[in-house]
Write a structure and sequence with these properties.
binds nicotinamide-adenine-dinucleotide, 349 residues, seven-stranded parallel beta sheet, binds UDP-4-deoxy-4-formamido-beta-L-arabinopyranose, Rossmann fold, 17% strand
């Protein structure tokens, strides 16, 4: 297949691009690099042992998208978006513009160029505060922040478009808590500034970049009082995207959860990480983080039935791979890139 990967230089996109290249697909990455680095693209090509073409562009730029899509593609995978839930509370319009306008523009460009297959990155954030766990796809959708709202609106836009054009086929994947990294240690989550997600933060504490982890709440009704989540290895997510591409056929829109189907608490994650890195991860308990919920984990049985997919890697493997990435790239790609640029400037005549 020839696949356009919007947001392919980012965390989940880069791992998926490697899998696509390794399976012999032709890949074009379309990314604004607003939250990623060209180093990721270099490593995608090294690990994929083939070359993905890179196009610098914003999905809100319809002309740029149409110019690429007009070459002819079998499918688009759409990862491009802003993803920090707490940031979206401060900047809702930035999130609506980037995510919703970006997705609308992509649909328009796909329609104009006759590209009719789409895999879309959605999120468990569409469920907000669940009534019960595990969460199945027909659970109530009660978003609790603008980021979640943007995901829900994008799902609805795609769903309505599929209804209007029965030749258009879409699979909407609701990821739970992605974690881990490529086993080579050459790709991983590369947040700008301090990570807001648990696993990369724990990795930075273990590496000595922060004095301690703040655990947000130890009075939840969970087995040890800390929040419980469904962590899913990024390599498993990459595999699910490959399977979703194979399943896209002849119209319709399917929504499915991608999670491991079991929950771990914050203290479980800390203990697993300590075992893997052989160092203590100091932590202090703090107040609950506003907007957090006690327990979230997926019923992933629809993905198993529809795609033949299930999570293969557990928490230990996620911690091992996240730690390898942390050791090999202690400051992430973007800090390395900035350092290289400043060295080049200093050495310029
Ligand atoms: P990421 O930030 O690492 O990757 C997103 C990529 O999209 C980045 O390379 C960024 O530069 C690019 N991008 C953003 N806006 C763009 C725009 N307007 N035009 C072109 N490129 C743009 O994030 P990720 O963790 O890889 O997430 C990928 C997708 O999965 C996102 O849509 C996110 O909302 C969704 N998701 C992520 C998580 C998670 O916790 N990581 C969970 C559920 C869903
Ligand atoms: C996990 C647990 C925290 C950091 C977010 C988004 C969601 C999705 C995945 C995109 C919680 C606790 C965390 C820390 C802590 N992203 N924690 N100290 O909040 O489940 O989900 O990422 O779609 O939309 O909301 O993930 O990794 O931030 O938190 O105690 O420094 O770790 O309270 O219980 P979350 P997370």
């Amino acid at each position: 297949m020839k696949v356009l990967v919007c947001g392919g230089a980012g965390y989940i996109g880069s791992h998926t691009c490697v899998a696509l290249l390794q399976h012999g697909h032709e890949v074009v990455i379309f990314d604004s690099l607003v939250n990623s680095s060209p180093f990721a693209v270099e490593n995608i090509n090294i690990l994929g042992k083939s070359s993905a073409r890179f196009v610098l562009g914003d999905v809100r730029d319809r002309d740029a998208l149409e110019a690429v899509l007009a070459e002819g593609f079998d499918a688009v995978i759409h990862f491009a978006g802003l993803k920090v839930a707490c940031e979206s509370l401060e900047k809702p319009l930035v999130y609506f513009d980037n995510n919703i306008v970006g997705t609308l523009t992509l649909l328009q460009a796909m329609q104009a160029t006759g590209v009719r297959n789409l895999v879309f990155s959605s999120s468990a954030s569409v469920y907000g505060q669940p009534d019960r766990v595990p969460i199945s796809e027909n659970a109530p959708l009660r978003v609790i922040n603008p980021y979640g709202r943007s995901k829900l609106v994008m799902e609805q836009l795609i769903g309505e478009f599929c209804l209007a054009d029965p030749r258009f086929s879409a699979i909407l994947l609701r990821y739970f808590n992605p974690a881990g990294a490529h086993p080579s240690g050459q790709l991983g989550e590369d947040p700008s500034g301090s990570p807001s997600n648990l696993v990369p933060y724990v990795a930075q504490v273990a590496a000595g970049l922060h004095a301690h982890l703040s655990i947000f709440g130890n009075d939840y009704p969970t087995h040890d009082g800390t929040g419980v989540r469904d962590y899913i290895h990024v390599m498993d997510l990459a595999d699910a995207h490959m399977k979703a591409l194979d399943r896209l056929d002849g119209g319709g829109c399917i929504v499915m959860n991608l999670g491991a189907g079991r929950g771990y608490s914050v203290l479980d994650v800390v203990a697993a990480f300590e075992r893997v890195c052989g160092r203590p991860v100091p932590y202090v308990f703090e107040d609950r983080r506003p907007g957090d919920v006690a327990e979230v984990w997926a019923d992933p049985s629809l993905a198993e039935r529809t795609l033949g997919w299930r999570a293969r890697y557990g928490l230990r493997r996620m911690c091992e791979d996240a730690w390898r990435w942390q050791i090999k790239h202690p400051h992430g790609f973007r800090r390395e890139e900035a350092r290289r640029l400043s060295l080049r400037r200093l050495s310029a005549p």
